[in-house]
């Protein structure tokens, strides 16, 4: 056996490992490539949406809390939005108003709380850990701060993983609405450790 041939045999396991790794990390089709022009074009179209409204269903499930409600999201600008959670009886359970100069939360008793961190205020007042800063992007089909994500064959987000401050959020896009252009999410599920958030967008209004 020649030295070169023996060396080749020794390299085979490494080559096989590298080939397997490449197979696992390469996109399965052109539609799943984050560098595809179709995905970049879709991103650009979605990023132009600055004013819109969403009506749908919200569910929060964890070991200590379960909540189902209708929700209304009104986005007036990138830093100005409003979220309402409405109980099955039609009463407002919670209203969140975010503006450049601060955050206000109104509970079901009409009591108002003011602050500057919407996510932290929701956690303190409701016990729900919701990644609002990124959720605003995930709801319209953009990855936000997530750097690990996959696309479907229509060049839209299929799933993503976001890690921050010791937390790891997994987001799965189960379906998209075909009634709006650009195509926007219809069913999303977020999971983090022992908690799960489900969003069903029944109606999109684009301004």
TrEMBL record:
Lineage start: Bacteria, Pseudomonadati, Pseudomonadota, Gammaproteobacteria, Enterobacterales
Domain of life: Bacteria
Swiss-Prot/TrEMBL keywords: Cell outer membrane, Chaperone, Lipoprotein, Membrane, Palmitate, Protein transport, Signal, Transport
First and last residue of the signal peptide: 1-21
Family of the protein in this entry: Belongs to the LolB family.
Assembly description: Monomer.
Compartments where found: Cell outer membrane
Pfam families attached to this UniProt entry: LolB
Biological process annotations from GO: lipoprotein localization to outer membrane; protein transport
UniProt-recorded name of the protein: Outer-membrane lipoprotein LolB
Principal location listed in the UniProt entry: membrane
Cellular component, GO, one term: cell outer membrane
Topology term for the membrane: Lipid-anchor
The keyword Chaperone is assigned to this record: yes
Function text: Plays a critical role in the incorporation of lipoproteins in the outer membrane after they are released by the LolA protein.
């Amino acid at each position: 056996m020649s030295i070169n041939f023996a060396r080749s045999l020794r390299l085979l396991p490494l080559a096989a490992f590298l080939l397997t790794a490449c197979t696992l990390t390469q996109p399965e089709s052109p539609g799943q490539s984050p560098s595809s022009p179709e995905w970049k074009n879709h991103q650009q179209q979605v990023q132009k949406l600055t004013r819109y409204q969403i009506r749908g269903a919200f569910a929060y499930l964890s070991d200590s809390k379960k909540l189902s409600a209708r929700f209304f999201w009104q986005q007036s600008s990138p830093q100005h939005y409003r979220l309402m959670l409405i109980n099955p009886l039609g009463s407002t359970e919670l209203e969140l108003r975010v503006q450049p100069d601060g955050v206000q939360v109104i509970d079901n008793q009409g009591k108002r709380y003011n602050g500057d961190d919407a996510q932290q205020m929701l956690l303190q007042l409701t016990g729900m850990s919701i990644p609002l800063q990124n959720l605003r992007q995930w709801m319209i089909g953009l990855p936000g701060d997530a750097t690990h994500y996959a696309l479907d064959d229509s060049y839209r987000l299929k799933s993503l993983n976001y890690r921050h401050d010791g937390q790891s959020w997994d987001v799965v896009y189960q379906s998209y609405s075909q009634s709006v252009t650009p195509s926007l999410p219809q069913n999303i599920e977020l999971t983090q450790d022992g908690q799960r958030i489900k969003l069903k967008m029944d109606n999109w209004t684009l301004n």
